[in-house]
Amino acid sequence: MMYNYKGYLNRIFLFLFLFGIIFNGYSQEEFGAKFKKISPKNKDLKIKPVVPPMAGPPKVLPYVPTPLPVNNFKMPKSNVIVASEVYRRNQDLGIYKTSSTTARIQYRDGAYVDGDRIRIYVNYKVIDYDVLLDGNFKGFEVKLEKGVNRIDFEALNEGFAPPNTAEFQVYDDKGVLISSSQWNIGQGYMATIIVDKE
Known about the structure:
This protein has 198 residues and is mainly beta.
């Protein structure tokens, strides 16, 4: 019983001790009636007026024209073209690809009928020695070998209105037009068609 009484007194003593510390903390003098406020110094603020910079007159650069580039082009020589010499060459009529087994070649005089004559070669073999061109289509059918098949038309003359002129057409085995064009060659020269069988 005595032990309980001592514990009870110890608790009361501890409570009073803590209460005294807390009360003493809230009763300090600087928070009392003698507290004086420190007023700020009264200083006039100096405000500098903001003046926008004055834009001066725009800067004008003097106009300096750029020099024109030097013309280094050379004029072609004024060669005199002689009409009779223009056709003194072989003419390439193009390469035509097809999967056809045969090709049908037709030809006729390309301008007006003036007695043009030709010789026809297929893969360097003559198949017709002398053909007179007229206004109607003539032709032949050739069996195409795999790869390049060369067909040459040699001008045997130029008729009475040079050069040797002709219109030609190439058809496949289904009758579909592969190519059509013309040649203009002098006597002794050739026009060549290449049919490439795929």
